[in-house]
Protein backbone atom coordinates (compact mmCIF):
# COMPACT_ATOMS: atom_id res chain seq x y z
CA UNK A 1 0.00 0.00 0.00
CA UNK A 2 1.45 3.38 -1.01
CA UNK A 3 1.98 6.27 1.35
CA UNK A 4 -0.67 8.40 -0.39
CA UNK A 5 -3.24 5.60 -0.23
CA UNK A 6 -2.54 5.08 3.47
CA UNK A 7 -3.02 8.76 4.16
CA UNK A 8 -6.29 8.87 2.24
CA UNK A 9 -7.70 5.84 4.05
CA UNK A 10 -6.67 7.18 7.45
CA UNK A 11 -8.12 10.57 6.65
CA UNK A 12 -11.42 9.09 5.55
CA UNK A 13 -11.68 6.99 8.73
CA UNK A 14 -10.80 9.95 10.93
CA UNK A 15 -13.29 12.22 9.18
CA UNK A 16 -16.03 9.61 9.58
CA UNK A 17 -15.27 9.61 13.30
CA UNK A 18 -15.50 13.42 13.42
CA UNK A 19 -18.79 13.45 11.55
CA UNK A 20 -20.14 10.73 13.84
CA UNK A 21 -19.13 12.78 16.87
CA UNK A 22 -20.95 15.77 15.45
CA UNK A 23 -24.14 13.77 14.89
CA UNK A 24 -24.06 12.00 18.27
CA UNK A 25 -23.26 15.12 20.27
CA UNK A 26 -26.04 17.04 18.55
CA UNK A 27 -28.40 14.96 20.70
CA UNK A 28 -26.80 16.46 23.82
CA UNK A 29 -27.09 20.01 22.52
CA UNK A 30 -30.54 21.24 23.55
CA UNK A 31 -29.85 24.83 24.57
CA UNK A 32 -27.13 27.49 24.60
CA UNK A 33 -25.71 26.19 27.88
CA UNK A 34 -25.07 22.87 26.14
CA UNK A 35 -23.87 24.49 22.90
CA UNK A 36 -21.31 26.77 24.59
CA UNK A 37 -20.27 24.86 27.75
CA UNK A 38 -21.50 21.28 27.41
CA UNK A 39 -23.88 21.69 30.34
CA UNK A 40 -20.88 22.31 32.67
CA UNK A 41 -20.21 18.59 33.03
CA UNK A 42 -16.67 18.21 31.65
CA UNK A 43 -14.44 15.67 33.36
CA UNK A 44 -10.69 16.04 33.94
CA UNK A 45 -9.35 14.23 30.86
CA UNK A 46 -11.58 15.96 28.30
CA UNK A 47 -11.16 19.41 29.86
CA UNK A 48 -7.37 19.11 30.25
CA UNK A 49 -6.58 17.69 26.82
CA UNK A 50 -9.12 19.75 24.89
CA UNK A 51 -8.00 23.00 26.56
CA UNK A 52 -4.36 22.14 25.86
CA UNK A 53 -5.00 21.24 22.24
CA UNK A 54 -7.10 24.32 21.52
CA UNK A 55 -4.35 26.56 22.90
CA UNK A 56 -1.59 24.90 20.86
CA UNK A 57 -2.13 22.72 17.80
CA UNK A 58 -0.82 24.06 14.46
CA UNK A 59 1.27 26.73 16.13
CA UNK A 60 2.96 24.14 18.33
CA UNK A 61 3.42 21.35 15.80
CA UNK A 62 4.55 23.51 12.90
CA UNK A 63 5.44 26.90 14.40
CA UNK A 64 7.52 25.84 17.42
CA UNK A 65 9.38 23.08 15.59
CA UNK A 66 9.95 25.53 12.72
CA UNK A 67 11.25 28.18 15.11
CA UNK A 68 13.72 25.72 16.66
CA UNK A 69 14.83 24.65 13.17
CA UNK A 70 15.44 28.27 12.12
CA UNK A 71 16.64 29.90 15.35
CA UNK A 72 18.54 27.12 17.12
CA UNK A 73 19.15 27.07 20.88
CA UNK A 74 17.33 30.36 21.47
CA UNK A 75 14.01 28.59 20.75
CA UNK A 76 14.38 26.95 24.18
CA UNK A 77 12.88 30.12 25.68
CA UNK A 78 9.56 28.98 24.21
CA UNK A 79 9.46 26.12 26.71
CA UNK A 80 9.33 28.12 29.98
CA UNK A 81 7.09 30.67 28.26
CA UNK A 82 4.44 28.17 27.21
CA UNK A 83 4.64 25.77 30.15
CA UNK A 84 4.63 28.78 32.47
CA UNK A 85 1.46 29.96 30.75
CA UNK A 86 -0.15 26.59 31.43
CA UNK A 87 0.81 26.82 35.10
CA UNK A 88 -0.57 30.36 35.36
CA UNK A 89 -3.84 29.30 33.79
CA UNK A 90 -4.43 26.08 35.69
CA UNK A 91 -3.25 27.15 39.16
CA UNK A 92 -4.32 30.81 39.28
CA UNK A 93 -7.18 31.27 36.81
CA UNK A 94 -8.91 27.88 36.59
CA UNK A 95 -10.02 27.27 40.21
CA UNK A 96 -11.32 30.81 40.68
CA UNK A 97 -12.98 31.09 37.28
CA UNK A 98 -14.68 27.72 37.66
CA UNK A 99 -16.22 28.83 40.94
CA UNK A 100 -17.16 32.32 39.76
CA UNK A 101 -18.76 31.16 36.50
CA UNK A 102 -20.88 28.61 38.36
CA UNK A 103 -21.99 31.18 40.94
CA UNK A 104 -22.93 33.79 38.31
CA UNK A 105 -24.10 31.28 35.68
CA UNK A 106 -21.81 32.92 33.13
CA UNK A 107 -21.35 31.11 29.82
CA UNK A 108 -18.49 33.13 28.31
CA UNK A 109 -15.39 35.09 29.30
CA UNK A 110 -17.04 38.31 28.16
CA UNK A 111 -20.02 37.62 30.40
CA UNK A 112 -17.70 37.23 33.39
CA UNK A 113 -16.01 40.55 32.59
CA UNK A 114 -19.07 42.57 31.58
CA UNK A 115 -21.72 41.12 33.87
CA UNK A 116 -23.75 43.69 35.84
CA UNK A 117 -22.16 46.69 34.07
CA UNK A 118 -24.35 49.45 32.61
CA UNK A 119 -25.05 49.16 28.86
CA UNK A 120 -23.59 52.64 28.23
CA UNK A 121 -20.06 51.32 28.71
CA UNK A 122 -20.47 48.87 25.80
CA UNK A 123 -17.98 46.44 27.34
CA UNK A 124 -19.65 43.43 25.75
CA UNK A 125 -19.65 45.10 22.32
CA UNK A 126 -15.96 46.05 22.51
CA UNK A 127 -14.99 42.60 23.81
CA UNK A 128 -16.94 40.88 21.03
CA UNK A 129 -15.26 42.97 18.34
CA UNK A 130 -11.80 42.23 19.77
CA UNK A 131 -12.52 38.50 20.00
CA UNK A 132 -13.99 38.27 16.49
CA UNK A 133 -11.11 40.27 14.98
CA UNK A 134 -8.36 38.31 16.75
CA UNK A 135 -9.89 34.88 16.29
CA UNK A 136 -10.41 35.49 12.59
CA UNK A 137 -6.61 35.59 12.25
CA UNK A 138 -6.22 32.65 14.62
CA UNK A 139 -8.74 30.49 12.74
CA UNK A 140 -7.23 31.33 9.38
CA UNK A 141 -3.83 30.16 10.65
CA UNK A 142 -5.34 26.74 11.40
CA UNK A 143 -6.72 26.59 7.87
CA UNK A 144 -3.27 27.59 6.63
CA UNK A 145 -1.73 24.68 8.51
CA UNK A 146 -4.19 22.31 6.86
CA UNK A 147 -3.39 23.81 3.47
CA UNK A 148 0.36 23.46 3.95
CA UNK A 149 -0.05 19.87 5.05
CA UNK A 150 -2.30 18.82 2.18
CA UNK A 151 -0.14 20.55 -0.41
CA UNK A 152 3.01 18.94 1.05
CA UNK A 153 1.41 15.49 1.08
CA UNK A 154 -0.79 15.30 -1.98
CA UNK A 155 -0.77 16.77 -5.44
CA UNK A 156 -3.47 19.25 -4.39
CA UNK A 157 -3.22 23.02 -4.54
CA UNK A 158 -2.95 25.00 -1.34
CA UNK A 159 -6.24 26.80 -1.99
CA UNK A 160 -8.22 23.57 -2.43
CA UNK A 161 -6.58 22.14 0.68
CA UNK A 162 -7.77 25.05 2.80
CA UNK A 163 -11.33 24.69 1.52
CA UNK A 164 -11.43 20.93 2.22
CA UNK A 165 -10.19 21.34 5.77
CA UNK A 166 -12.56 24.21 6.46
CA UNK A 167 -15.60 22.30 5.20
CA UNK A 168 -15.04 19.43 7.62
CA UNK A 169 -14.58 21.74 10.61
CA UNK A 170 -17.69 23.72 9.77
CA UNK A 171 -19.83 20.57 9.64
CA UNK A 172 -19.08 18.99 13.01
CA UNK A 173 -18.89 22.32 14.85
CA UNK A 174 -22.35 23.26 13.56
CA UNK A 175 -23.73 19.86 14.49
CA UNK A 176 -22.45 19.30 18.01
CA UNK A 177 -21.29 22.62 19.42
CA UNK A 178 -19.17 22.48 22.57
CA UNK A 179 -19.43 18.72 23.03
CA UNK A 180 -18.25 18.02 19.49
CA UNK A 181 -15.45 20.56 19.86
CA UNK A 182 -14.27 19.21 23.23
CA UNK A 183 -14.26 15.56 22.22
CA UNK A 184 -12.57 16.14 18.86
CA UNK A 185 -10.02 18.40 20.55
CA UNK A 186 -9.33 15.63 23.05
CA UNK A 187 -8.59 13.22 20.20
CA UNK A 188 -6.44 15.91 18.64
CA UNK A 189 -4.53 16.51 21.86
CA UNK A 190 -3.79 12.82 22.33
CA UNK A 191 -2.51 12.58 18.75
CA UNK A 192 -0.32 15.63 19.30
CA UNK A 193 1.17 14.15 22.47
CA UNK A 194 1.90 10.85 20.71
CA UNK A 195 3.55 12.63 17.78
CA UNK A 196 5.54 14.89 20.13
CA UNK A 197 7.03 11.81 21.77
CA UNK A 198 7.49 9.42 18.85
CA UNK A 199 8.81 11.78 16.15
CA UNK A 200 11.49 13.62 18.21
CA UNK A 201 12.77 10.32 19.61
CA UNK A 202 13.02 8.88 16.09
CA UNK A 203 14.85 12.02 14.93
CA UNK A 204 17.25 11.88 17.89
CA UNK A 205 18.02 8.22 17.20
CA UNK A 206 18.67 9.07 13.54
CA UNK A 207 21.08 11.82 14.58
CA UNK A 208 22.95 9.33 16.76
CA UNK A 209 21.81 10.29 20.23
CA UNK A 210 21.90 13.37 22.39
CA UNK A 211 25.70 13.56 22.60
CA UNK A 212 25.99 13.50 18.81
CA UNK A 213 23.33 16.19 18.54
CA UNK A 214 25.34 18.41 20.89
CA UNK A 215 28.43 17.85 18.74
CA UNK A 216 26.64 18.50 15.44
CA UNK A 217 24.65 21.63 16.29
CA UNK A 218 27.71 23.95 16.53
CA UNK A 219 28.50 23.03 12.92
CA UNK A 220 25.27 24.59 11.64
CA UNK A 221 26.32 27.51 9.47
CA UNK A 222 23.88 30.09 10.89
CA UNK A 223 24.98 33.08 12.92
CA UNK A 224 23.86 32.79 16.54
CA UNK A 225 22.45 29.28 16.17
CA UNK A 226 24.12 28.15 19.41
CA UNK A 227 23.38 31.35 21.30
CA UNK A 228 20.48 31.75 23.72
CA UNK A 229 20.07 35.30 22.40
CA UNK A 230 21.02 34.74 18.73
CA UNK A 231 24.18 36.85 19.23
CA UNK A 232 22.14 40.02 19.61
CA UNK A 233 23.37 43.15 21.30
CA UNK A 234 22.49 43.25 25.03
CA UNK A 235 19.51 45.59 24.68
CA UNK A 236 18.09 43.63 21.74
CA UNK A 237 18.78 40.33 23.52
CA UNK A 238 16.78 41.42 26.58
CA UNK A 239 13.90 42.44 24.37
CA UNK A 240 14.03 39.14 22.47
CA UNK A 241 14.01 36.97 25.61
CA UNK A 242 11.32 38.98 27.36
CA UNK A 243 9.28 38.93 24.17
CA UNK A 244 9.33 35.14 24.06
CA UNK A 245 8.63 34.79 27.78
CA UNK A 246 5.78 37.23 27.34
CA UNK A 247 3.94 34.62 25.30
CA UNK A 248 3.04 32.96 28.60
CA UNK A 249 1.11 36.03 29.71
CA UNK A 250 -1.32 35.52 26.87
CA UNK A 251 -2.82 32.30 28.22
CA UNK A 252 -5.37 33.78 30.68
CA UNK A 253 -6.82 36.01 27.98
CA UNK A 254 -7.72 33.26 25.50
CA UNK A 255 -11.53 32.82 25.53
CA UNK A 256 -11.38 29.48 23.71
CA UNK A 257 -9.10 28.09 26.43
CA UNK A 258 -10.54 29.47 29.66
CA UNK A 259 -14.07 28.42 28.72
CA UNK A 260 -12.96 24.84 29.48
CA UNK A 261 -12.40 25.94 33.08
CA UNK A 262 -15.95 27.24 33.20
CA UNK A 263 -17.25 23.92 31.87
CA UNK A 264 -15.56 21.76 34.54
CA UNK A 265 -18.07 19.93 36.67
CA UNK A 266 -16.31 20.44 40.04
CA UNK A 267 -13.06 21.27 41.84
CA UNK A 268 -12.04 17.63 42.11
CA UNK A 269 -12.09 17.32 38.33
CA UNK A 270 -10.01 20.50 38.11
CA UNK A 271 -7.25 19.12 40.36
CA UNK A 272 -6.83 16.05 38.17
CA UNK A 273 -7.17 18.08 34.96
CA UNK A 274 -4.33 20.49 35.72
CA UNK A 275 -1.90 17.64 36.38
CA UNK A 276 -2.75 16.13 33.01
CA UNK A 277 -2.50 19.50 31.26
CA UNK A 278 0.94 20.40 32.67
CA UNK A 279 2.33 16.97 31.77
CA UNK A 280 0.92 17.36 28.26
CA UNK A 281 2.58 20.76 27.85
CA UNK A 282 5.97 19.48 29.00
CA UNK A 283 5.88 16.59 26.53
CA UNK A 284 4.62 18.52 23.53
CA UNK A 285 6.72 21.69 23.74
CA UNK A 286 9.97 19.95 24.63
CA UNK A 287 9.32 17.41 21.87
CA UNK A 288 8.75 20.03 19.17
CA UNK A 289 11.85 22.02 20.15
CA UNK A 290 13.94 18.84 20.08
CA UNK A 291 12.48 17.93 16.69
CA UNK A 292 13.43 21.29 15.23
CA UNK A 293 17.03 21.01 16.46
CA UNK A 294 17.40 17.43 15.23
CA UNK A 295 15.79 18.43 11.95
CA UNK A 296 18.42 21.09 11.32
CA UNK A 297 21.17 18.45 11.66
CA UNK A 298 19.36 15.92 9.47
CA UNK A 299 17.83 18.20 6.81
CA UNK A 300 19.91 21.30 6.29
CA UNK A 301 17.91 23.05 3.57
CA UNK A 302 14.12 23.34 3.77
CA UNK A 303 12.55 26.33 1.99
CA UNK A 304 9.64 26.53 4.43
CA UNK A 305 10.91 25.99 7.98
CA UNK A 306 7.36 25.25 9.21
CA UNK A 307 7.35 22.03 7.17
CA UNK A 308 10.17 20.38 9.15
CA UNK A 309 7.55 18.27 10.96
CA UNK A 310 6.40 16.66 7.71
CA UNK A 311 9.87 16.41 6.19
CA UNK A 312 11.07 14.50 9.25
CA UNK A 313 7.99 12.27 9.28
CA UNK A 314 8.33 11.32 5.62
CA UNK A 315 12.05 10.60 5.89
CA UNK A 316 12.21 8.78 9.22
CA UNK A 317 9.34 6.34 8.91
CA UNK A 318 8.19 3.74 6.43
CA UNK A 319 5.54 4.91 3.94
CA UNK A 320 2.70 3.26 5.86
CA UNK A 321 3.67 4.59 9.31
CA UNK A 322 4.51 8.01 7.88
CA UNK A 323 1.15 8.02 6.13
CA UNK A 324 -0.76 7.22 9.32
CA UNK A 325 1.11 9.83 11.37
CA UNK A 326 0.77 12.53 8.72
CA UNK A 327 -2.93 11.85 8.28
CA UNK A 328 -3.62 11.85 12.01
CA UNK A 329 -1.71 15.04 12.67
CA UNK A 330 -3.28 16.67 9.63
CA UNK A 331 -6.69 15.87 11.03
CA UNK A 332 -5.63 17.16 14.44
CA UNK A 333 -4.44 20.46 12.99
CA UNK A 334 -7.64 20.89 11.01
CA UNK A 335 -9.83 20.34 14.06
CA UNK A 336 -8.21 23.10 16.13
CA UNK A 337 -10.20 25.97 14.64
CA UNK A 338 -13.45 24.59 16.05
CA UNK A 339 -12.82 26.02 19.54
CA UNK A 340 -12.10 29.46 18.17
CA UNK A 341 -15.17 29.32 15.93
CA UNK A 342 -17.40 28.45 18.86
CA UNK A 343 -16.02 31.23 21.05
CA UNK A 344 -16.29 33.79 18.27
CA UNK A 345 -19.89 32.73 17.67
CA UNK A 346 -20.70 33.06 21.37
CA UNK A 347 -19.23 36.58 21.38
CA UNK A 348 -21.26 37.75 18.41
CA UNK A 349 -24.54 36.17 19.55
CA UNK A 350 -24.77 35.44 23.28
CA UNK A 351 -22.48 38.23 24.54
CA UNK A 352 -24.10 40.98 22.49
CA UNK A 353 -27.43 40.15 24.15
CA UNK A 354 -26.17 40.70 27.71
CA UNK A 355 -28.32 43.78 28.08
CA UNK A 356 -31.15 42.80 25.78
CA UNK A 357 -34.22 40.67 26.09
CA UNK A 358 -33.26 37.06 25.60
CA UNK A 359 -34.34 35.31 22.43
CA UNK A 360 -35.73 31.80 22.32
CA UNK A 361 -33.45 28.78 22.63
CA UNK A 362 -34.08 27.79 19.01
CA UNK A 363 -33.31 31.28 17.74
CA UNK A 364 -30.12 31.45 19.83
CA UNK A 365 -28.80 28.17 18.44
CA UNK A 366 -29.66 29.19 14.89
CA UNK A 367 -27.89 32.52 15.27
CA UNK A 368 -24.81 30.83 16.73
CA UNK A 369 -24.61 28.37 13.85
CA UNK A 370 -25.01 31.11 11.24
CA UNK A 371 -22.14 33.05 12.81
CA UNK A 372 -19.94 29.92 12.86
CA UNK A 373 -20.58 29.43 9.15
CA UNK A 374 -19.90 33.07 8.19
CA UNK A 375 -16.71 33.27 10.26
CA UNK A 376 -15.47 30.06 8.68
CA UNK A 377 -15.94 31.46 5.20
CA UNK A 378 -14.12 34.68 6.16
CA UNK A 379 -11.25 32.68 7.69
CA UNK A 380 -10.92 30.55 4.56
CA UNK A 381 -10.58 33.66 2.41
CA UNK A 382 -7.99 35.13 4.80
CA UNK A 383 -6.03 31.87 4.80
CA UNK A 384 -5.95 31.79 1.00
CA UNK A 385 -5.22 35.45 0.28
CA UNK A 386 -3.28 36.49 3.40
CA UNK A 387 0.33 35.87 4.40
CA UNK A 388 1.41 32.26 4.88
CA UNK A 389 3.41 32.58 8.14
CA UNK A 390 1.53 30.58 10.81
CA UNK A 391 3.87 31.40 13.70
CA UNK A 392 3.55 35.18 13.39
CA UNK A 393 -0.18 35.22 12.72
CA UNK A 394 -1.01 33.09 15.75
CA UNK A 395 1.19 35.15 18.05
CA UNK A 396 -0.46 38.34 16.82
CA UNK A 397 -3.94 37.11 17.71
CA UNK A 398 -2.70 35.43 20.89
CA UNK A 399 -0.96 38.55 22.22
CA UNK A 400 -3.81 40.89 21.30
CA UNK A 401 -6.43 38.86 23.18
CA UNK A 402 -4.05 38.14 26.03
CA UNK A 403 -3.41 41.85 26.65
CA UNK A 404 -7.08 42.75 26.23
CA UNK A 405 -8.62 40.16 28.56
CA UNK A 406 -5.88 38.56 30.67
CA UNK A 407 -5.21 41.53 33.00
CA UNK A 408 -8.93 42.15 33.59
CA UNK A 409 -9.65 38.50 34.30
CA UNK A 410 -6.72 38.00 36.68
CA UNK A 411 -7.46 41.18 38.63
CA UNK A 412 -11.17 40.33 38.74
CA UNK A 413 -10.47 36.85 40.12
CA UNK A 414 -7.81 37.90 42.64
CA UNK A 415 -9.04 41.31 43.77
CA UNK A 416 -12.76 41.43 43.11
CA UNK A 417 -15.02 43.49 40.81
CA UNK A 418 -13.54 46.24 38.63
CA UNK A 419 -15.35 49.44 37.78
CA UNK A 420 -16.87 49.49 34.28
CA UNK A 421 -14.77 52.50 33.28
CA UNK A 422 -11.49 50.84 34.31
CA UNK A 423 -12.53 47.59 32.61
CA UNK A 424 -13.17 49.33 29.32
CA UNK A 425 -9.98 51.43 29.44
CA UNK A 426 -7.79 48.44 30.38
CA UNK A 427 -9.30 46.31 27.62
CA UNK A 428 -8.87 48.93 24.90
CA UNK A 429 -5.39 49.96 26.04
CA UNK A 430 -4.07 46.40 26.22
CA UNK A 431 -5.46 45.50 22.81
CA UNK A 432 -4.44 48.73 21.06
CA UNK A 433 -0.87 48.80 22.40
CA UNK A 434 -0.43 45.15 21.45
CA UNK A 435 -1.58 45.75 17.88
CA UNK A 436 0.57 48.87 17.53
CA UNK A 437 3.60 47.09 18.99
CA UNK A 438 3.16 44.23 16.54
CA UNK A 439 2.78 46.63 13.61
CA UNK A 440 6.11 48.36 14.22
CA UNK A 441 9.06 46.21 12.99
CA UNK A 442 11.39 47.49 15.73
CA UNK A 443 9.03 46.43 18.55
CA UNK A 444 7.41 43.35 17.02
CA UNK A 445 8.02 40.25 19.13
CA UNK A 446 9.69 42.19 21.97
CA UNK A 447 8.58 43.06 25.50
CA UNK A 448 7.00 46.25 24.09
CA UNK A 449 4.68 44.09 22.02
CA UNK A 450 3.94 41.28 24.50
CA UNK A 451 4.63 42.47 28.06
CA UNK A 452 4.21 46.25 28.28
CA UNK A 453 0.53 46.27 27.13
CA UNK A 454 -0.26 43.51 29.63
CA UNK A 455 1.44 45.31 32.52
CA UNK A 456 -0.18 48.69 31.82
CA UNK A 457 -3.63 47.12 31.45
CA UNK A 458 -3.11 45.26 34.74
CA UNK A 459 -2.23 48.48 36.56
CA UNK A 460 -5.36 50.19 35.26
CA UNK A 461 -7.57 47.23 36.12
CA UNK A 462 -6.14 47.01 39.65
CA UNK A 463 -6.61 50.72 40.27
CA UNK A 464 -10.22 50.27 39.18
CA UNK A 465 -11.07 47.57 41.68
CA UNK A 466 -14.00 48.45 43.89
CA UNK A 467 -12.68 48.92 47.41
UniProtKB/TrEMBL annotation:
Protein family per UniProt: Belongs to the sodium:solute symporter (SSF) (TC 2.A.21) family.
Membrane-spanning ranges: 6-25, 37-62, 68-92, 121-141, 161-183, 190-213, 233-252, 277-299, 319-345, 366-384, 396-415, 422-441
Protein function: Catalyzes the sodium-dependent uptake of extracellular L-proline.
Alphabetical UniProt keywords: Amino-acid transport, Cell membrane, Ion transport, Membrane, Sodium, Sodium transport, Symport, Transmembrane, Transmembrane helix, Transport
One GO cellular component term noted in the UniProt record for this chain: plasma membrane
Record-linked PANTHER family: SODIUM/PROLINE SYMPORTER-RELATED, SODIUM_PROLINE SYMPORTER
Membrane topology: Multi-pass membrane protein
Keyword Membrane: yes
One biological process term in Gene Ontology: proline transport
Source taxon at top rank: Bacteria
Name the UniProt record assigns to this protein: Sodium/proline symporter
Localization per record: Cell membrane
